[in-house]
């Protein structure tokens, strides 16, 4: 989990463009790898979601007695909670991916603008 969520594996700040106060900073060559790791995590949550859906779809008690139906209901309730938790994490990951992509775009735009300004500055001295 450390490779995805924290420490130096993610760099040290995507701050303003990623949505506020604190944050991380990435070198331009790092951010694509960070985005790819988060997209991989998203894909894992999507696969989990399909597995949970499949389990929920086949939940039936082996008999119509109280013990069987009660157990099946408990398992179904647990799977429903797992589904909700997984969806919450999936929403978070999708939101974070969008913020990372916004931060990448903002960084690329700032870099292009700075390069253009530097070029104009250098041309002024050449004249």
Query: What does the average pLDDT come to?
Result: 79
CATH class, anyone? Mainly Alpha
Number of individual domains: 1
At CATH's second level, what is the architecture?
Answer: Orthogonal Bundle
What structural class is derived from the secondary structure elements? mainly alpha
Q: Give, in order, the helices and strands.
A: HHHH
The fraction of residues assigned to DSSP E strands is under 5%
Which parts are unreliable, with pLDDT below 50 for 5 consecutive residues or more? 1-19
What's the overall geometry?
A: rod-shaped
Separation of the first and last Cα atoms? 55 Å
From the alpha carbons, calculate the radius of gyration and give it in angstroms. 23 Å
Name of the CATH homologous superfamily: HP0062-like domain
Total beta strands: 0
Count, helices: 4
- Per the CATH scheme, the topology name is Helix Hairpins
Helix content: over 70%
Oligomer: single chain
Main sheet: strands, sense, barrel: none
Organism: Amycolatopsis antarctica
Protein name: PE domain-containing protein
Summarize the structure.
The chain is mostly helical and 127 residues long. It is built from four helices and no strands.
Task: Reconstruct the topology from this structure.
Elements: H1 2-5, H2 15-18, H3 28-58, H4 66-126
Helix pairs in contact: 3-4
